[in-house]
């Protein structure tokens, strides 16, 4: 997961911009119920017939609940499995995220200031986690590295698929070889 609000979720990157919600990793089954609740509320609010059946107050309450759930879960709502790694901006403030990642065996990469313990982080980055410039610089390097790694994996997968296509003979060739074997055994 990446704690940055301007990332595309369809790329497999998820983010939390507010305080970490306890149980995001350790109690994921319960959390997914809230994701479903958010989807249902959005469906109700987007359906004109459903809106027509409700009072203004009910619609207002639904919109408030939707906003609350989006604030908490907006960046992780499409997450279906535990992440491979967590990138944390302030490991001291987000100690719950660090502890959950440790329990679940998720690698952690974090900006570690002087007030945080670098020994609980798998890959600590010593830097000022309060300076916006520092956060932007480090985050951009992390995102670039992730994109580069993703592209490399995709290229390798495409290459493997091409190699498999080259190795597997075409159906016509397989049929012809079988026909030859049948003819040879028939001659004997």
CATH superfamily of the domain at 9-25 and 82-164: Glucose-6-phosphate isomerase like protein, domain 1
CATH architecture of the domain at 9-25 and 82-164: 3-Layer(aba) Sandwich
Q: Give Rg in angstroms.
A: 25 Å
Say what the CATH topology of the domain at 9-25 and 82-164 is: Rossmann fold
Oligomer: single chain
Distance between the termini: 67 Å
**Care to count the β-strands?**
3
* Average pLDDT figure: 83
Description of the molecule:
56% of the residues lie in helices and 7% in strands. It is mostly helical and 188 residues long. The protein has a domain at 9-25 and 82-164: Glucose-6-phosphate isomerase like protein, domain 1 (Rossmann fold), CATH 3.40.50. A three-stranded parallel beta sheet has the order 1-2-3, sandwiched between helices. It is flat. Mean pLDDT is 83; it is low at 1-7.
List the helices and strands and how they pair.
Layout: H1 28-46, H2 48-53, H3 56-73, E1 85-88, H4 95-104, E2 107-112, E3 123-126, H5 132-167, H6 171-187
Parallel strand pairs: 1-2, 2-3
Helix pairs in contact: 1-3
In short:
The protein has 188 residues and is mainly α.
Features:
flat, three-stranded parallel beta sheet, mainly alpha, 6 helices, about 55% helix, Rossmann fold, about 190 residues
